[in-house]
Each structure stands twice: as structure tokens, then as C-alpha cells.
User: Fold this.
Amino acid sequence: MHQAEPGRLAGAGPGRELPAHDLPVHDLSWPAAREAAKEAGAGLAAHLPGPETVPLPAAVGRVLAADLLARYALPHYASSAMDGWAVAGPGPWRLPPAAPAGHGEPPPLEAGQAVPILTGGALPHGTTAVLRRERGAVSGEGGSGSEGSADVLSATEGCAPSEGTDIRPAGTEAAEGDLLLPRGTRLNPGAVAVAAVAGADTVQVAAPVPVRLVFTGDEVVTSGIPAPGQVRDAFGPVLPACVAGLGGTVDSTARIGDSMEATLEALDGPAARRARILVTTGGTGASPADHVRPAARRLGAEFLVDGIAMRPGHPALLARFPDGRLLLALPGNPLAALVAVATLLEPALRAAAGRPASYPVPCRAAADAPPLPGRHRLVPARWIGAGADRALAPAEHVGSAMMRGLATADALLVIPPEGLRQGADAGWLPLPW
Assistant:
């Protein structure tokens, strides 16, 4: 059980904090809510298919299910770091007729010999250094080492290479068997490139977590200009990208009105039972039109997080059904919902895929933030300054129902209950996509 944290009652009024004995006992602190989501996500692993093997082009965005090891040394041969000549010993150097250039298995060099080389080319045995092309001059009949010539290579004044210059020894990046990427790594294009150069043709990846999205609300319209009393759907175009960006996969979607019957079907029908995480939008309040919490209770769900001591996103709910599926109920206000995604869905999906937990990244605050006792705040913010002066400044238009601030934000600034002073240490989370 998580210890109850101070919170703030709905309807208390902006800026009016309630005495501690009047605060709801079910609110979890923001860190405790993230920990609960991580533990719940880890529990999904037993309900997911085992790892699958996919070819490298299909691996971007997937999560490694096994450590990736180097199948051979990287690089697996000594190579040149520059275009020029591989040289043996001090100069000047003789250029053998028809000297090979660049790649393949070149013949060995004797002391006083040189051979043209391209960047990445295999160095002949006996090479002591590479002389860059712009630092050498060739003299002789052919002037370039052509067949029949007696060309001589000399370093320009002051440019004689010392031993080892511009040589990439074998194994400088990794030895055979070295750990390149640990299990739980999310594969971006750079990681897939590492797997390729390490000799992998396929990789083992975790099964993606199937997610069902349920959009609620009689007042929500999906196109055009909403009439008074209606609102445009901000979730349909955004949440699939959030799920994919966090490592899940959208298995199904549903759009329902404000009725108990529709809510029960959306949470427990055949499509809902295929998913391991159900994400609902809106309907998390206590009005007669809010059915998510009552429906979850009727279906026997265990409430793991029933409100979070944070702004925005306080009404978010995380529950677990008897069959192990998770329900993440998001508030209806767009910014509040996306903050709840960063707070609860991100750690749940990471844990389900076997990825390590994430924590706020250290930064500096660019402005004062007043205290809000008992509550964390997550605020869209932008980087300002550079170098040692780089800091995060809260964006404008960051009310729980506003999206303009998030649209131009770089990160979510985490403001602790005690507030922040300009220049103080703070933390940030990446945006949930």
C-alpha cells in the first residue's frame, strides 16, 4: 500500500489550499504515482507474448529483449583514418609500381616503402603511420606511382608522421564479445546501425504492449468548428503518436457517448480484452455523466492510483482488472491528460517492455516558481540560453485545458511542492511522444 499524500479537493478554488485534515486521503504523491505505474507495468510482462526476432529494418522503435554483443572486433582490421599513404618507417618512401589503393588484403610493406590508402582501407602489415595526402609530395618518372615508375614519397616540411599517426587499430571501438547495447534499450536508427556494423542481421525484441484507446464524451466532435457546448477532439490525433513514441502499439480504438452501458462494453468487450492497457479520455469526475470510475468498480478493478497530488492531471486514475489488464483514465482537459500520460503511461510501458525506469533529468530553472504545498507541477517549458547559462523557462498558455504552450515546448519542467528559485536545480521529463 502507498502512503496517503496530501492533495487538494476539487472545488476548493484556485490558490486556496485546504487544511491537511480536509485533504483527500487517496491522492498519491507524484513520485509515488510513477512508482505505482512502473510496478503495474512490470506486472504486465507475464501476460505478454515472448520475444520475437525481427530483421534490422523492422527493429527501429522496438525494445531489445536480449543484450547485443559484438560478434567481432570493431573495427575488425587496422584501417586508415585519412586518405593518403600507408608508410613503413621514416621517409622518404619508395612507392612500388601498381601500388594497390584502399581496400582488400594488401601485401605487406617493408621499411622505407609506402602505398596509397583510402579512408577506411585495410593497412598493410608493417605500416607504422599514415601520411595524409595534403602532407605528402611524390617525385619521380610517373609522379603518382604508376607502373614502371620509380616514384618517391616525401613528407612536406614539418609534417613527418609519428608512429601510429592516423591509424585506427582493430578493436578500438569494441572487442569481440563486448556489450554494445543492453537488454531494454529502445532501438533508434543509431542503435540499429550499431547492430548492423556489429554483424547482426536480426535482433530479439520484446513484444509491444497492445493498447486500446477509448475516447468518451457526448460533447466531443472530431471535425469542423464546434458549436457552443461542444469541444474539438484533441486526443484522437495525438494519443496514437504518444503510445507509439512510448513503445506501445495501438490495438484498437473506440469512441463512445456518456453512458454506463457503452463504457462497460468499451472496457470489457472482445476488443478491450485483447489489449493489456486501456487508455480512456474524460469521464474521470464524479458527475452523473462520468462513468469511468463506476464502470471500473463494477468490473472488479483494483485502484492503484486514484488521484495524484499534482497539477495539472490530478484526477488521473490507474487501475488493474482481475485479468491483469491495466486501465489508465485520463482527465478530459488536454494538457492535464498529456501530463498524466507522461506521469503514468510512460513508466508503465517502459516497465512492461523490460526497460529501466526513467527519472527527471537535471536542469536549471530559468525563473521563480512559487510553492504549492503537497503538489508537484509539470509545466511545458522551453530551453533558453546556452552553455552554462542554459535553463528551462515555463511556457505561456499552460492552463490544463490549453495546448498552445505544449505545442512549442521542449520538455516538461518538474516543479516540486516547495517551488523553485531562478537558477536552482530542477528536473525535466521528455514530452510523451
User: Anything to note?
Assistant: Confidence is low (pLDDT under 50) at residues 1-25, 142-148.
